Amino acid sequence: MSPAPGDTPPRPRVPALIATHADLAQALVRAAESVVGPVEDVTIVSNLGLSKDELEEAIEEQVKGWSYGGLVFVDFWGSSCHTCGATAARKHGEVIIFTGVNLPLFLDYLYNREKFDVVALAERLQQKGRDSIRVQRGVPA
Amino acid sequence: MSWVLHRIDDRLIHGQVLVAWGARLDPVRIWVVDDGVAASEWERTLFREAAPGIDVRVASVAEAAQAHAQEAAAPGAAFLLVRDLATARALVEAGAVVRDWNVGGLHYAPGKEKLNDYVYLGPADRGHARALLALGGALTVQDVPASAPTALAALDPALAA
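Above: the input entities. Below: the structure tokens describing the complete assembly.
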């Protein structure tokens, strides 16, 4: 069916790469699939056994084709995935390094990656990630 | 207090350094000694911002050799990171007195042989390792504090030849 006159054309999906220590990226996608079903168009990189240069190349290989920017989710600030991701991304437009990825914010990414541009989506996910970290102590009254 | 860790690690600042060694030794300064990083404004900024709460100083080999003795007497603990054995050797030959090098990560590259999961050496690396040992330094392989430390020469009999 053709879009009706005045309809907003669909946004391009904001692409994502998850780059982490060991098997965390793979496990995060698997965990997300257990909640929402098959996850498409998310690539993963592990830093396991890779030098700084190799990790930069591995990340750049994934992000270099992103025409409208994208998100590189990494586990923590200061990690090799963060610094190598930042170096790899800087040559490729609006590629945002997003540290501290967790399952709630990744699920939110999956449901909103066609609704926002990359900058607005990153801001949304930063808040979602923060909101997802709560401490419950004892039994509520 | 100052120097508590001199580490050879091709990732320079990364998780093992900040989290595992950082929790054990609580550095207030980290020196990244690398001519390439020091020459790149982008990488200087990136590494300076990589360790919130820690004063990261990026220096060339010549700058670090000059500052090394003075830093040794500074308050607080300090780490020094180089990416390879060649840089470690250059630093020592430029005048820095380093008795113990932690070999934390020298990953695979073509022409290098595997010693364990995180240390691979080629002929040039072995030359630099021999030179460092001859200069009186110890080379101890240990990625994180929880791992058993092992002398590099014990992992690589070629170094004893």
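Note for the figure: The two ends of chain B are 37 Å apart (CA to CA).
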